[in-house]
Amino acid sequence: MEGAGTSPIISAGDVEKYAYCPLSWWLSIGLEDEPDQKKALLDGEKKHGDFGKDLSSIVSGEIAAEKSETVILWFAITATLISIVGLSLIFKADQNIGMIMGVIALIWILAACYFLYLAETITSKKSRLAYQRIILIFAIVGAVIGVNSVTVLSDFFRPEVAQIMQVLSLVWLIAASFFFYRSLKHFHAAKLKRQKRKVKEAISYVDDTANKPKLFISKKHGLSGRPDYVVLVGDDHIPVEIKTGRTPRGPLFSHIMQVAAYCMLLEEEYARPPPHGIIRYPEMEHEIDYDESLKNLVITKLNEMREKIQTKDVHRNHNKPGKCKSCSRRGICQERLA
User: pLDDT of 139-153, one tens digit each?
Assistant: First the structure.
C-alpha cells in the first residue's frame, strides 16, 4: 500500500488480501509472515518468477525472430539487386534495360512510401516503427543506387567488376541464411515456451521479477498494480493472474477482486475496458467478465479499506475455519477460528 494522507494508493494485491479477510489484510501491514507461511510465499514467488522469466523469453524471442525475418528480406533484396547489376555488366545491358530498371525503382519507391504511411498509422512501439523506417529508407537508397548502377557501369564494363558483384551477392545471401537460422532458432524456442506455459495469445506485458515493468496507477481510483501478464486479443488488453497454489472448484472471490482491479487499471491506461480478466490455476483457467457491477464492487472495497485505515476498526468478516487455517496471520490473530 502506497501513498500518504487520507487517500493512499492501494495495490491490487492488497485488494485481494482484503477481500479474503479484512483482518488478515490489516495484520499483514508492516509485519513478517510466520516461518511456514513465509516459506510457502517464497515458493509461490519463485514459481511466479519462473513463469515471468519464461514469458519474457517468449516476448524477446519473438521480437528477435521478427527482426531477423525483416533483415532476411532486405538482405535477399540487396543480393538480388547486386546480382542483377553483375549480370547486366556481363551481358552489357543496353539503355532499354536501364529504362525498365528505372521503372522498377520507381515502383519500389512508391511501395516503400506506402509502407512508411502504414508505419505512421499503425499503433505500435516507437522503437519498432523507427526500426522499420530505417530499413525502408536504406532499402529505397539501395534500390535506387542498384538500378542506376546498371545504366552507369554498363558503359565501363570490366569482367572483374561483374565477378566482384556476383561474389558480393553470394556473401549477402550467406548473411541472409545466417539470419534465417537465427529467426528459426528464436521462433522455435518461443514456441516451446508457449506450449509449456499454455499461452497462445500475443503478450503485451510481463511482470518479470528480474526486470520490473511499468507499475499501472489509477489516480482516479487510488489503485496500483502489476498483472502477472497481459495478453492482446484484437484491440483488448486482457490481464492474467497466475495462482500457484491448489486449484479450487471455482474462482475465489478474493482472486476475482484482484483481477477486476487489474481490469480497472488497464481500462484507464488504454482508455478501453477489457471484456474480461483471466485467473489461471495450476489445473484450470477462468475468464472473469468485467462490467460496471464488478467495477463498482472493487470501488466499494477500496472505499471500505480507506475507511478502515482511518478508523483502525478492523475485524474478521467470515465464519470459515478453513480460511483461518490457511491464513498466514493466524498466529497473531485474536479472532481466529482455527
Answer: 655 555 555 555 454
